[in-house]
Specification:
The protein has 9 helices and 12 strands. It is α/β, with parallel strands linked by helices. The structure holds N,N'-Bis(3-aminopropyl)-1,4-cyclohexanediamine.
């Protein structure tokens, strides 16, 4: 009964709204306010501190792209780390890759994990994979304890820079990610919106170019329920075997059998992988010049 509007100082003067059928959960964890509501047309919705994290209707776009853009860019991913992503959607996507033998996830807020398992079983299904180990804690601290050259891929599925995820957008964190990756390893981070956050993106690209001596690329996709309707990703590789993000070494398409053992890919395919790196001129100018 009524509308939820996503009002935030991170996107002043605009607000995306969703019609609410019923509020299903409201709580306050150690870190943030957590809410779940049944929307009229986007399924259930997860909200943290007033910011939409995912909806059942369009989460496939974000989870599939943030996962398969990096994992399809290296020939044989084995050890994968997810920072954030407590809802489990990225785990569900990583587990489609049969070459992977170890999936670690570090999520700071246990309430996000518990709420996702209770209200979003088709997203939290990712936790059921035996390769998954959940670490509840701060990703910055977790990475400090990771030996050098441990992971083939690291996915940083964070919320936004205002709140618990703030440190995940800063240089020291990127440096600890680079150390934890093997030579030619890849990282994919949630990297905001070219319509809203070109300055944040400028800083992230500049930091990444200083730290990641392989390739550094920005990709983007459409997610209707994120502000401005798009979300971006930083794709970086460490020095070592070259990674060409724009031409996936390990391509998958919807009809691949071993990828559909967990239901079909709804969004990702090789064409949209390549297209994700095509940017409008105002973004190219900033990103290619850093
Ligand atoms: N596994 C889903 C987690 C979603 N991560 C983020 C949630 C907040 C969202 N704000 C977008 C703000 C405008 N760029 C970005 C993705």
């Amino acid at each position: 009964p009524g509308w939820f509007s996503e009002i935030s100082p991170m996107w002043p003067g605009e607000a995306h709204s969703l019609k609410v059928e019923k509020i299903l959960f409201q709580g306050k964890s150690e870190y943030q306010n957590v809410m779940v509501f049944q929307s009229s047309t986007y399924g259930k919705v997860l909200v943290l501190d007033g910011v939409i994290q995912l909806t059942e209707r369009d989460e496939c776009a974000y989870q599939e792209m943030i996962t398969h853009l990096p994992l399809c860019s290296i020939p044989n991913p084995k050890k994968v780390l997810v920072i954030g992503g407590g809802d489990g959607g990225v785990l569900r996507e990583v587990s489609r890759h049969s070459s992977v033998d170890q999936i670690d996830i570090c999520e700071i807020d246990k309430m996000v994990v518990d709420v996702s398992k209770q209200f979003f079983p088709d997203i939290a299904v990712g936790y059921k994979d035996p390769r998954v180990t959940l670490h509840v804690g701060d990703g910055v601290a977790f990475l400090k304890g990771v030996p050098e050259d441990t992971y083939d891929a690291i996915i940083v599925d964070s919320s936004d820079p205002i709140g618990p995820a703030q440190e995940l957008f800063e240089k020291p964190f990127f440096a600890s990610v680079a150390k934890a990756l093997r030579p030619g390893g890849v990282v994919c981070t949630q990297a905001e919106s070219i319509w809203l956050h070109m300055h944040i993106i400028e800083d992230i690209v500049s930091n990444c170019r200083q730290i990641f001596k392989g390739s550094v690329n920005y990709a983007w996709t459409t997610v209707p329920t994120y502000p401005s309707g798009v979300i971006g990703f930083m794709l970086c590789s460490t020095e070592g075997p070259p990674v060409d993000f724009k031409h996936p070494a390990n391509p998958i398409d919807a009809e691949d059998s071993h990828f559909n053992s967990k239901g079909t890919l709804k969004f990702y395919n090789s064409e949209i992988h390549a297209a994700a790196f095509c940017l409008p001129s105002f973004a190219k100018k900033v990103i290619d010049s850093k």
